[in-house]
Amino acid sequence: MSFSQDTKQELSKINNLAKKDLVKQELKGYLISCNATVVDSNTLRYATENEYNINRFSKLLNNVNIDYSIEMEGKTFVIKFKLKDNSLATIKNKKICIDYENINNEEAEKALIRGAFLGSGSINNPENKYHLELKFLTQENANKIREILNKFHINFKPLNRDKKYSIYIKEGEEISNFLAFIGANSAVLKFEDIRVQREMRGKVNRLVNCESANLTKTLNASIEQIDAIKKLQDNNKFNKLDNNLKEIAILRLENPDLPLSELGKMLKNPVGKSGVNYRLKKIIEIAGEI
Questions:
Q1: Which residues pair with 70 in a beta bridge?
Q2: Is the pLDDT confidence value at 104 over 70?
């Protein structure tokens, strides 16, 4: 299964069905997702390809004594039911509307947002990239859920496309905080494990790239220095160099791969990296005048 499916499987097993108010809030989360639509004046339809989702949704409906039917449309589970009253939702202009004023404590807000994620949320495999998204059918619901999450310092960004209104996060720490917020504790541990490994690989790659770049730079500089020395030799100018320049030139010819700091230690009177660099630049300068 995908990381997203694993997360939804975990959430579908949360045992809070004894708390009727939380059950209703979670159901409301499903109903504001983009996968819930209006069939007629009091009939709603929810569709999903995730069997854990449909099982959870049917349990929630059973818990509040709402009759429903389930059928298959290709690979999609479709559940239909009639609203008994306005305690879950109302239908206005063929849109499902819920009352946010009654969702006034943290546990209720968590249940609502958990339902929204189960309803039409998704999360990419964190080994590839960080991306978690919730999709809604109305701008109002997207804004309301984003507003609630902001209260808990989980900062989603808006994304509107194809007549669906989405909010998303791409930062690893934000995704981890969101998963913990909705109760996906095992998913948090797995996500954090992958995140640590991914960041370690990134650090190693950056170090390797840095070392590679430094090595390339050193080799290119060495080639330029050796070319200059050989040019002086070919033009009978080498013996006219002062002793300090001749000494470093000979060492460079004998040790083409050695860094400047190591060359400096091999001199009769050792000097630091900057001293060696100065002498070799002087040789390149003299060769450039030929």
A1: 79
A2: yes
pLDDT at 233 over 90: no
Residue 133 near residue 34 (C-beta atoms within 8 A): no
This prediction's pTM? 0.70
Q: Are residues 128 and 46 in the same domain?
A: yes
**Residue 189 falls inside a structural domain:** no
List the structure tokens of 169. Answer: 């996060």
Query: What are the tokens at 12?
Result: 């579908």
Q: Is the pLDDT of residue 204 over 70?
A: no
CA gap 15, 258 in Å, rounded: 66
Mean pLDDT of 84-110: 88
d(CA 169, CA 192): 16
| Region of residue 167 (phi > 0: left; psi between -120 and 50: alpha; otherwise: beta) | beta
Determine what percent of the chain is predicted with pLDDT higher than 70. 96
Range of the domain at 275: 200-288
Asked if the model's pLDDT at residue 211 lies above 70, the reply is: no
Q: Both tokens of residue 73?
A: 């449309």
Q: Which of 37, 45, 16 is nearest to 110 (CA)?
A: 16
Q: Torsion angle of alpha carbons 206, 211, 216, 222, nearest 10°?
A: 160
Q: Are residues 179 and 224 part of one domain?
A: no
Our count of domains for the chain comes to 2
Q: Are residues 158 and 238 in the same domain?
A: no
